[in-house]
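fwd from M.: "can u put these together and see what the complex looks like"

so here's what she sent:
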Amino acid sequence: MPAVPSNVLLTNGSQQALDLIGKVFVNREDYIITSRPTYLGAIQAWNAYGARYHTVNLDDEGMVVEEVEHAYEKVLADSGRPPSFIYVLPNFHNPAGTTLPLKRRERLAEIATRLDLPIVEDDPYGQLRYEGEDLPPICTFVPERTMYLGTFSKTLAPGLRLGWIVCPEVLMQRFVTAKQGADLHTGTFAQHVTNDICQRGFLKPHVQRLRRVYKERRDTMLEALAEFWPEGCSWTQPQGGLFLWARVPESINTTDFLQQALEEKVAYVPGVSFYPNEDGGFDAMRLNFSYCAPDEIVEGIRRLGIALKRELRIV
Amino acid sequence: MPAVPSNVLLTNGSQQALDLIGKVFVNREDYIITSRPTYLGAIQAWNAYGARYHTVNLDDEGMVVEEVEHAYEKVLADSGRPPSFIYVLPNFHNPAGTTLPLKRRERLAEIATRLDLPIVEDDPYGQLRYEGEDLPPICTFVPERTMYLGTFSKTLAPGLRLGWIVCPEVLMQRFVTAKQGADLHTGTFAQHVTNDICQRGFLKPHVQRLRRVYKERRDTMLEALAEFWPEGCSWTQPQGGLFLWARVPESINTTDFLQQALEEKVAYVPGVSFYPNEDGGFDAMRLNFSYCAPDEIVEGIRRLGIALKRELRIV
């Protein structure tokens, strides 16, 4: 799906694209199909429009797309109307860190076509791949039903508030109207500055540097987890992005356990925050590996490990 | 109402403040009390939340605030619940160019207090006064029930997308939650740049220059209207801001007439656009005097005058 001026709308970060999609596509009590877990910011954006969520499972390869058809039928039976769209994070999922393989992308495109459902493809981390091959975005298979979201927030700077939505031209007027009501337009000053930065060739080597730095941090975190965490824990092995998803023994509730982590000066986001129906993730947490320096990562994972062992009484 | 960190939220232009107010305060079919005419962008923002409008008249001194109580009663009778808030543009009204005198400000504050209604005070042009004395904003009389909106868009640059809302602290958490869902935060890059511009003392003399330049353009437009427009037309005499509101003989529908104006390469916004219930303004138009140089203003008003006379068959 090539981006051309007539099918791109610049947004105030890709969070605003999620908000505009809610404004245009979600009526009160409409269902959205998403994985569990899913991106917290999307839930926050769509809750404001009264969305409900029907969730499908997520495994080490991301959303279990074969469950989408059943989810569709349940939504139809429950609400009498189809879901508003399928929400998917194909690359280095937030919070799960998983990447949808090519086969699942093709299969999701087939299913969406058969069910006549729009797809919201949220891809903020796509350029931050640390191993493996880039995979084609789902929008390349079904451009006519995909709203693809990108952003400069993870490659250049979140404070610029520059994201974009690429969508079928027939939808553009509705998004433009929603955007005008929301904030008239996206900051032209930040657009000019960003264009200048890109024209000067800064972005490509900068992203290469990010890949190098973040890859080291990811590797550091994976090694520290293996070294310091007790048995019975597991975690995803992200090929890119900023996050991994860790599971602890079921006897630990990660929302309650957060207080003990904070006493060790370590923070994470409890798993249940990413379950739109708050029906899971009690034994899970999202860990960020991009922000801290490697020595801090080791120390943070070590302290979490000690607190986990104390909680499990295996010190 | 002093602005302190705990009662100010920076928004993506003050248009976003209108949108967030809609998100927090407007449920589907709620009524908003506003003047007719009123700001088009506010209508666009609140229509997205299913707002309805009960309008009160506007005369040469702005909103006829004595009508608010009757409007409140009508809303209550019609919908069974009070209106969401009163929306008022006290200074150099868009589109009408009118300014609410001190007595009306005090009176509106009294009425809102008695009816227990919030006030949305939209003040994008307050610093652009070309004659007369500054008047206290309504929020100074009733800070506990006023959401005051300001912006850098008219004094510095709209492309920065920097506005603000000052509101009672008890409301702030709701706005922060709505803001996070809408776009996470307002661009920090633009904030740093704007802060730097202000610290360097650029803003104050720049606004003084804007006042001088825009005053000349306002005076030029008022003189050109008196010289070139036919009898039966009238217009407001704004003490500041960017716009004036012109009325033409009732036989002319300004929406239809726009085509003839465009043929003369002159544009205006037809009056009905500013009537949320589309029940007036057919003989009115909004004219902008801040954008064009004085010689273009004279030429534009001259051409509109010729087209009006042709339409009225008084050539």
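replying to her w this: The CA atoms of residues 127 and 207 of chain A lie 8 Å apart.
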